[in-house]
Design brief:
seven-stranded parallel beta sheet, homodimer, two-stranded antiparallel sheet, 48% helix
Chain lengths: 341, 341
């Protein structure tokens, strides 16, 4: 059994003394110990070497003692496993040299066998679980099918993913075929992760907020719902969509254990839009971690009061930024761990 | 008097036979006649030469007959007039080589005399009014102070303007000084535009959606409210904030004549969040103009039904994209002009 099960209890909606805390991208570039490994090993080496991925996963836990670890990996391991080439270019980000633009481009896209193509992730989970030694739960994650499609079609990051949206609106049949292939792969991937030992899974819909509510239903939500349906009996599922305030009601009714919210949605709006019953996760503005530590602590305490200590997981509203001072991240975590009503 | 005053009547909330229509960035790169001029003249030459700016402004009107023209210009003429150097780099976008990062950087930032520094805009208005010959109204615009600050601090476009947000959160006093200088300049600028002949003004808060609701009040909304207060007796004011669904209530109660909404906010949500009384403007997903023309027409008719034909200005939810086919833009405009209940 997990010794600190605060996170899992919050996902179940149980009454707790204080909410649990972790940070999206907590195993990341703001940590000097991460930067040491980053100097020595390139991105995919870090992802694909279980010793490195597990070490990176536990680095923030050693330093700050969060209530959950999240396996170091990337959402783009999925298209890579589907035979879509993914490169990670320094000072540029992800680059997919052969983006999907036509129905014909889909022919070479496979739904892979997870053990064969992503066995390194499963090995990293085994190794991380050993390192965590049942102290805290481990989270596994995947991108939403829509968010993965965005990269597969655009071929790189983008402010508005116009090519990806254009693909869906001009070739909806091809788009749905690709989305279903990604969904099938993601379900098998997350099930394998749970089997390998993760205690909860999170689906990141980073670019869902680019779509109108109607298009969100068609091109994003229906596929996330498939994932929730397939996973919810295996492990608690957290659904997080950046900019997806308009879909919070569907998310809350989906069977997911918790819903993540970004910082544009106040606690009051988030509770109202989700119906007040489901566990919420979020939503500190990552840039607000640039405020002085005392101000961060004050804002975190206010945030917990606004969300309420129960049915709540303290987190940022998106990933931690690379240039956040260590003492500021410490102030964020400490304010939660010392919280008293 | 303006012959086609449909747009001004919609801003007043009067009953109309059909809603008026225009498109954000309608004088833009999707038009071959615009691209002809773009080949010959660089960005600031186009902005600063009244003959060119007025010609570009009326190009889409000649082709499509929108119900309002919007003066061709750029939100970054304001920092330029405030002695902050702004370059427009091909294939890169705006670049400010000396970004504001400290209180000291503010010392050289001036609140300029509008006639001296932006007289070319006023001349362009005079010339455009002659070309429009009272057929339709002319809109003038400015960026919100927060959105202008984003560029002044970041020094270029960005996905999340982390430097700009960091500046506000670490040096709030300096941020407020800069915001007030931009606000004072913007008020004088918009008043001069109205005096020169524009029939309405729109404030674009393109990056307001990066802020939490509390930070939005502090760093964006209070300055927009100053602008609305100063302008509303001179001309109808339209306030548009991309991603600012959480502030729609304040916008509706501000004294503005209309509130723009982006495509993530359904008509139903927009009417609910604004209290159901104010004129709304929007909100077709610009990427949805890539759909086939018949599909565009069907979606536009549905959008008008959802918003209702009164107290409504048909528009996109953000600027038109450069690669939209001409017949698709035509389908959008035509669907509104032929709308019958």
């Amino acid at each position: 059994m997990i010794k600190n099960d605060l996170f899992l209890r919050a996902l179940k909606g149980e009454t707790v003394d204080r909410p649990p805390v972790w940070m999206m991208r907590q195993a990341g570039r703001y940590l000097p110990e991460f930067m040491e490994l980053r100097k020595k090993y390139d991105f995919f080496t870090r992802c694909q070497t279980p010793e490195l991925a597990s070490e990176i996963t536990v680095q923030p836990i050693r330093r700050y003692g969060m209530d959950a670890a999240i396996l170091f990996s990337d959402i783009l391991v999925i298209p890579q496993a589907m035979d879509i080439e993914v490169q990670m270019k320094p000072n540029f980000g992800p680059y997919l040299p052969n983006p999907i633009r036509t129905a014909k481009d889909l022919e070479s896209v496979v739904v892979p066998n997870i053990e064969d193509s992503l066995g390194y992730v499963l090995d990293a989970i085994t190794m991380t679980k050993e390192k965590l030694d049942n102290e805290i739960p481990l989270i596994g994650f995947a991108g939403s099918p829509w968010t993965i499609l965005c990269y597969c079609v655009e071929g790189q990051g983008s402010k508005s993913f116009d090519k990806a949206r254009g693909f869906c609106f001009t070739q909806p049949e091809a788009a749905h075929k690709l989305l279903q292939k990604i969904t099938d792969t993601t379900i098998a991937y997350l099930k394998a992760k749970v089997k390998a030992g993760v205690n909860a899974v999170q689906v990141f819909d980073s670019w869902g907020g680019m779509l109108s509510p109607m298009d969100y239903q068609e091109f994003s939500w229906q596929y996330i719902q498939q994932i929730v349906d397939a996973l919810k009996d295996d492990a608690p599922v957290i659904v997080f969509g950046k900019g997806c305030w308009f879909a919070l009601r569907e998310m809350a009714q989906s069977g997911a254990s918790a819903v993540g919210v970004d910082w544009t949605c106040s606690a009051q709006n988030a509770r109202y839009l989700t119906g007040g019953q489901i566990t919420l996760q979020g939503n500190f503005d990552p840039a607000r971690l640039l405020s002085p530590p005392e101000k961060i602590k004050e804002m975190v305490r206010q945030m917990i009061q606004d969300f309420g200590k129960d049915k709540y997981v303290v987190n940022l509203g998106h990933g931690i930024l690379p240039h956040i001072p260590l003492e500021n991240a410490a102030a964020f975590i400490e304010a939660v761990k010392s919280y008293k009503e």
